[in-house]
Amino acid sequence: MQDTHTRTPITIPEFRNLHTLSGHTRAVNVLAMSLDSAFLLSGADDSALIIWDVLSGHLVQSIDVRFHGQLQTALWLYTDIDRVATGFIFGCADGTVHHYKKEPASVQFNCAAVEKPPAGRGGVEALAFDPFNSHVATARGGMIELWSVESRDLKLLHSNRTEDVLISSLFFIEQGTVLVISYLESHEVVAYQTMPWKEQWRRTLRTRLWVFSSRISDVIDTIDTIFSGFCVPGADTMLVSNLEDGVDVYTLPPTRLIRTHRHSTEENYRLQLATFSEGSFAVGSATGTIPLYDQAGHLCQTISHGTLPVTTLTSSQLGGTSYLVSAASTFPFDIKIWAAASTLAHGQPVVAEHGPQSLSFRQFLILMFLCGATQWLLSNLQTVHNAMLRLTQLA
């Protein structure tokens, strides 16, 4: 396996604040950006799920689920071809799983299904989506469930009780044929073949697991994007934000610890990770200053959200633009969208016909505004057309 320390260093472009969003009244637990970087989901202890337009920073839709408790996890649904968001799924503290579907020619999302847990089951701890087979995995109350995403429903395919009740994370590998589960207390990572259900491998890591992220090369090659993770050439890898001394980078399966990036864990905050395709990653902070590391693990940038804990992060990339989103877990519970316009696309320099070129940040903002205006116009085209017809009839 090639050592990342021998790679040519990649310059990480500077992240600048694009929008500061205000809409939640309690700690923000959930952030998820659609793969086409058009929408952002945010969920909080105030039992509100908000959909934001990334380009404009405007609130698109707010969903009140106060009777189901706080939001605990969420993810976007999309096809494995065009990456465009088709809907989303989120889980609440009472164990309910909510499926929302995007309406055609609209930016609104409507409820398609709500799956209620059996009595006594805990909250939804983790979700994972497999775009190849349209499957969703859920973890709640020590039970793993595999669902088929139908047009207006979620169909249960399999359920399996686990040894450890507390599940840290779920993700699919091998084009959705294998589900990887990480457990908080037992330090274990276990992979199961999904159809039929069969254990593939089991490993025990050195620390308690909180956030568990991976980069899976076969998924990236197929849909030309990244779920979440850290890349080591020649091998699939995973990141673990542990509760002891920082972030661990392992091979996948986790047979070898590649290195550890140490940061303060004195407050024992559960810090989330945000990752980018060229191998850089950011980690949440108890002080409000978010560190960004390059592909070799060197600190290359710090991003100041504020002076209070910022534990919730997400990221997305579209072409040569990288997005980082951070959310405060204390008042004022604000969300900040950061953008870095770069000549890098998929980890390689993009060279124009007459040499390297890149947009200035001002040009980048103007372009984003024009894209947002175009998106609004297209989404309201039918409304404008109907209005013109009515005016013609009146005349």
UniProtKB/TrEMBL annotation:
Designated name of the protein: WD40 repeat-like protein
InterPro entries referenced in this protein's UniProt entry, alphabetically: WD40/YVTN_repeat-like_dom_sf, WD40_repeat_CS, WD40_repeat_dom_sf, WD40_rpt
Entry-linked SUPFAM superfamilies: WD40 repeat-like
Keyword annotations of the record: Repeat, WD repeat
Ranges: WD repeats: 21-62
Listed PROSITE patterns: WD_REPEATS_1, WD_REPEATS_2, WD_REPEATS_REGION
Species this chain originates from: Coprinellus micaceus (Glistening ink-cap mushroom)
A matching Pfam family: WD40
Gene Ontology CC terms, in alphabetical order: transferase complex
